Amino acid sequence: MSETAAEPRLTPLTAPADGVPPVLTLPHQLRGAVADFAAGTGPIAIDAERASGYRYGQHNYLVQMRRAGAGTVLLDPIALPDLHSFTDAAGDAEWVFHAATQDLWPLREQGIEPRRIFDTELAARLLGMPRVGLAAVVADLLGLSLAKEHSAADWSTRPLPDSWLVYAALDVEVLIELRDELAKRLAAAGKLEWAYQEFAHELAAPPHEQRPEPWRRTSRITDVKGRRALGVARELWEARDSIARRQDVAAGRILPDRAIVAAAIKQPRTVPDLLRIREFTTKAARTRAPLWLEVIGRALALPEDALPSSRGPASDAPPPPRTWAERAPHAAERWESVRPAVIARAEELNLPVENLLQPDTLRRLCWDESIGADLVPEFLAARGARPWQIEQAGPIIAKNL
């Protein structure tokens, strides 16, 4: 029988070293915490918990921070919605996140505006780590086992259970130690400057704009054929979104995506017909059955010119590369030459190809036949590529064009 290498033994991280602090809800508690953080030293570890799948939108329901000399603080941003005083207390200190793009804008709603950041998830990607979730990176680099059983919990719950508070405090317990280890490895790999360029880019990025016709992101919407059926899906999605926003409930709890798609395909004319659709057997869907039927009827009565296009909103993006051979043979040749070379370069650098260059940028460059080798750096910079990406990918692209 062959022997396999034993998995490294991990040390469980079950409780914060200083205990679990209380959740702060009062202004005088906030002032005290701000004073402690102003007197602290070094980077500030920060994380936030939301109620995705339970509440409408992406608002924070708990904010946790840690700094040397100040310890860990847990804040209720519902009771204390204005946290801008921490921005002043931090000064020019670095804020340490894991997956900063998820947390930066919800935290800005509370007035937290970091001047510098370090993103441990992005750092792990640049190092080519196969797993980049917080628990996985902590296990691989620090040898600690970090439980993640409450990551999908309803953090709008009040009061928050003690076990959830332990989990929240542990999320920032070793984040600064993790940051230091990642920075050391990035420096050894010659990637630390790359990382800081990426962090600056994350910090300066605008909020994600809502896509036109957001209803088209309904799961399995491609199963819906024809403009009339798409009109039903759109009207149901918009009615659901209005209810969800008004009641502050996740839209899927009002009506699942699969129910919208099923109703758009079957287009029932009566409440009994609607309730015979398997996807409308949930209590929430059945309770509003007359409303859903009214919305479906309204969609079925729309004039043709009010129905959505079967193609979706206009876009300046190139068509899928699989169609290029017939539509634009020269662009197809560029794509077939450049893309494998960029993938190979990413493998040489031991990082995901999308971190070397965004796929959309590469597609646009290959599609636009007016972009010659001499214009590659300018094109990449205009699309938001960072200097290190232009330096590493630009010559490869230019050579293979």
UniProtKB/TrEMBL annotation:
- Region annotation Disordered: where it falls in the sequence: 306-330
- Coiled-coil stretches noted in the UniProt entry, renumbered to this chain: none
Any one GO BP annotation for this protein: nucleobase-containing compound metabolic process
In alphabetical order, the GO MF annotations are: 3'-5' exonuclease activity; nucleic acid binding; nucleotide binding
Pfam families assigned: DNA_pol_A_exo1, DNA_pol_A_exoN, HRDC
Q: In what residue span(s) does the HRDC domain sit? A: 226-306
Indicate what this protein is called per its UniProt record: Ribonuclease D
Q: Which InterPro entries match?
A: 3'-5'_exonuclease_dom, Exo_C, HRDC-like_sf, HRDC_dom, HRDC_dom_sf, RNase_D-like, RNaseH-like_sf, RNaseH_sf
